[in-house]
Amino acid sequence: MDPTLDTWDFSSPLISLWINRFYIYLGFAFGFSLWICFQIVIRKQNKNSQEKTVPRASQDLMTNGYISRPKKEVFVSGVKIFYGSQTGTAKGFATILAEALSSLDLPVAVINLKDYDPDDHLAEEVTSKNVCAFLVATYTDGQPPESAEWFCKWLEEAANDFRFGKTYLKGMRYAVFGLGNSVYVSHFNKVGKNVDKWLWMLGARRVMTRGEGDGNVVKSKHGSIEADFTAWKAKFISRLQALRKGEGKRCRGSCKKGKCESSRRGSEAAEPGSHAQEELHHRDAEEEEPFESSSEEESDAEDRQSRNSVVDVEDLGRIMGHVTKEKAVLGWYCGFWDEDVKMN
Ligand SMILES: Cc1cc2nc3c(=O)[nH]c(=O)nc-3n(C[C@H](O)[C@H](O)[C@H](O)COP(=O)(O)O)c2cc1C
């Protein structure tokens, strides 16, 4: 007989607990897993009831359970004012415009076209969300000032190079104010017109009608080139404010885009630079509410329109066919037989 066994008292509760410890562990484990299951069920129920009470829109804004503020979309991130000047007028206007824009709380950069390489940087404006203003003067024989020569040369070549195409600057937004003197009749404001046209041809979006500054006080629309600029500046600022709010283009039916093609009348409809458009442009700068346009959009509308005119010609052919047949019947009836009719 083991002597140590004598010292064990099997009736003691501690000993019986020790002997049955595995059952106790098992009980604890079972209770613990039951508690976990219970917690999971409660959490699920809470989440469901929360989803029911939080509106759908708010749920979309929730990240990790926290409501985050809706991200404000930025429609205009800044303004770049480019100028091409020889005797300083365009440069002065650029500074005035920059000062006027300072109240809008937008980053504004004034850039001399002399220091700007379009080859390296112009394409950046496609995604930058900037609005670009071009203030450019015209010189002898419709040439740009020396400082803007390279920019204009590059732009003209790109606009006429099929490798760039009419989407190269798609996404860029711009407005042009040309400085000139109508004394130089045939070359009046030619550089402004060309810059506007070339940007448009490359797919950039014109946010407002081109402005024309005229140093000829007799003919200037507002009495002086300064007054012409002041009027354009006011329109540009109000357009910019609208763009900042994300307001789309305004169209009063004079463009040939989409719905309003039928009532088209205006300058933006025609290919910029065409004679008719130049005439109308002059008037439009005063009369028209500015609206956006790009060459790609307008050529789409042009395609639609030319398709319509093909249909029109077909209709005309059908009508002529009917007329000829009726003429033949009438001729035969009346006893004469026209050679033309016989041919048909
Ligand atoms: C020598 C000379 C030639 C000019 N040629 C033209 C011209 O062909 N077409 C035009 O519209 N303006 C012409 N102008 C007018 C200028 O474009 C106008 O004075 C403009 O405001 C100058 O701007 P800037 O001071 O920024 O260089 C000419 C001016 C000068 C002095």
UniProtKB/TrEMBL annotation:
* Name this protein carries in UniProt: S-adenosyl-L-methionine-dependent tRNA 4-demethylwyosine synthase TYW1 isoform X3
- Where in the numbering of this chain does the Flavodoxin-like domain appear? 79-237
Swiss-Prot/TrEMBL keywords: Membrane, Transmembrane, Transmembrane helix
**Which InterPro entries does the annotation name?**
Flavdoxin-like, Flavodoxin/NO_synth, Flavoprotein-like_sf, tRNA_wybutosine-synthase
Where are its TM segments located? 22-42
Q: According to the UniProt record, where is the region Disordered?
A: 250-313
Basic and acidic residues composition bias: residue spans: 258-268, 276-285
One Pfam family of this protein, by short name?
Answer: Flavodoxin_1
What organism is the protein native to?
Odocoileus virginianus (White-tailed deer)
SUPFAM superfamilies attached here? Flavoproteins
Q: Where is the composition biased (Acidic residues)?
A: 286-301
Source organism, top-level taxon: Eukaryota
